[in-house]
Design goal:
Helices cover 43% and strands 13% of the residues. With 114 residues, it is an alpha+beta fold. It folds into two domains: 65 residues, 3-Layer(aba) Sandwich (Rossmann fold), CATH 3.40.50; 30 residues. It has a two-stranded parallel sheet with strand order 1-2. The longest helix is centred in the last third of the chain and has 21 residues.
Amino acid sequence: MRAGIYARYSSDNQEERSIDDQVRICREFIERRGDMVADVFADYEISGASLKLRPQALRLVDELRAEKMLCPTAGDNVVRLLPPLIIGEEEMSYAITAIDRACTRLATKQGVAS
């Protein structure tokens, strides 16, 4: 498997070499698993307060989304990574039935005839 590494440091709290340390630790972990580092994304002297200010983090998110990875943001500084969602016929049938039941309950509570 190919892996990407994202590293960042804030000029107020860390030094530039902290990126090297983060990358080294991640690279060792990836290689122990028998995987390969495909790319390193690093933001230097950038606060973690907002994702919008971190161009390499945004580049990584764009690359993941291009691979159909679900990458919803959670606030200004968190990205959640989810595998692609593949729904089969059984799951779709279950979802449609559940939605129908929920809508029926709501309509009944509001006095709407079905």
